[in-house]
Design a protein that fits this description.
By secondary structure, the chain is an all-beta fold. It is built from no helices and eight strands. The strands form three sheets. The chain has a four-stranded antiparallel sheet, with no helix packed on it. Strands 1-6 form a two-stranded antiparallel ribbon. It has a two-stranded antiparallel ribbon with strand order 7-8. Strand 2 and strand 3 form a beta hairpin. The radius of gyration is 16 Å and the shape is elongated. The two termini are 20 Å apart.
């Protein structure tokens, strides 16, 4: 899986990031204001693409997170087996 670094503060709902080595779709983003002695934090809630597990991430706004490079294309499902699926572009 190829990934690219992005700033945590630039993550929007509907985008994709990697949490715990799993690609996830972001469903909620909440930013807190900076305190007297600390930087602003961001709380990201995302759902895994492959396992549908809800994951959360709390980090500083200027921290880097990994974003997977997702390419979306239309295709036709040819065959679906027990653990195999065949697609045609």
């Amino acid at each position: 899986m190829s990934v690219r670094p992005v700033a945590a503060g630039s993550v929007k709902e509907g985008s994709y990031i990697v949490i715990d080595d799993e690609p996830c779709r972001v469903v909620e983003v909440a930013k807190s204001k900076p305190g007297k002695h600390g930087a602003a934090k961001i709380r990201i809630v995302a759902i895994g693409i492959f396992d549908d597990v809800k994951r959360s991430l709390v980090s500083p706004v200027n921290a880097r997170v990994e974003a997977p490079m997702v390419s979306k294309r239309k295709g036709q499902v040819i065959f679906v087996g027990d653990d195999v699926a065949q697609l045609m572009d």
